[in-house]
Fold:
Amino acid sequence: MPPANPELISPRSPRVAAARRLARRNFRGKERLFLAEGPQAVREAAGYGKETLVELFATVEAAERYADIVGEARTAGARVHLADEQVIAEISTTVTPQGLVGVCRFVDTPFEEILAARPRLVAVLAHVRDPGNAGTVLRCADAAGADAVVLTDASVDLYNPKAVRASVGSLFHLPVAVGVPVEQAVAGLKAAGVRVLAADGAGDHDLDDELDRRTMGGPTAWVFGNEAWGLPEETRALADAVVRVPIHGRAESLNLATAAAVCLYASARAQRAFGGCRSVTDS
Structure:
């Protein structure tokens, strides 16, 4: 059982100050550490391995409510600090903190390792600037069974607290490469035998037609662009095809995360169909 009184009572504690600085990208990059907030993210970090979870700050109430997660954190080698709500508020980047904030080591994977694993379904975030969208697309890729996610050097920081929260733990589920120039990403994937499709509302190819023609059963990478202006022409030109998600109703368009989910699930379904590169028993 945790002690009755929190052990970190001052927001001016050096450990608290060090954790608080990780809300800023330059400090995250320097320390190669980031924040994971909430029970789901902390649980996934504790179970990731490689001593990923370094420290855990928890209110007494949260430590009691999520005693199993605190136990997993300790088993994983993390230092657990009980703190009052003011301390958690100082570290947290949310309006209503859930009482658990973890400090984690970076978990990104070199792009070369992703290619060496012969991926069959990949999401490439080419010009995604909104961290919430980036995290949500990562979550969609995880749910669709993608083998990897690639964030190019023109996209948002993977470890932005909002991106980490939006991934809801999926950051710890599949390999993610960061800072890869889009030209290098596309060239590497093509050399690995992956068909590269650019998702764009003005694409020449219709997703429904691609599915009907059974052209999507092989290894595929989807390239997603900026939330407001999509993909620049030079990025579109790199792809094997530019594909649009059909709009059957009166909506003007789909937002980035919704379009990504549709595209990734379409590929996942095609790959699991007869003749595709995934069997129906694949997880």
Notes: The two ends are 38 Å apart (CA to CA). The mean pLDDT is 90.
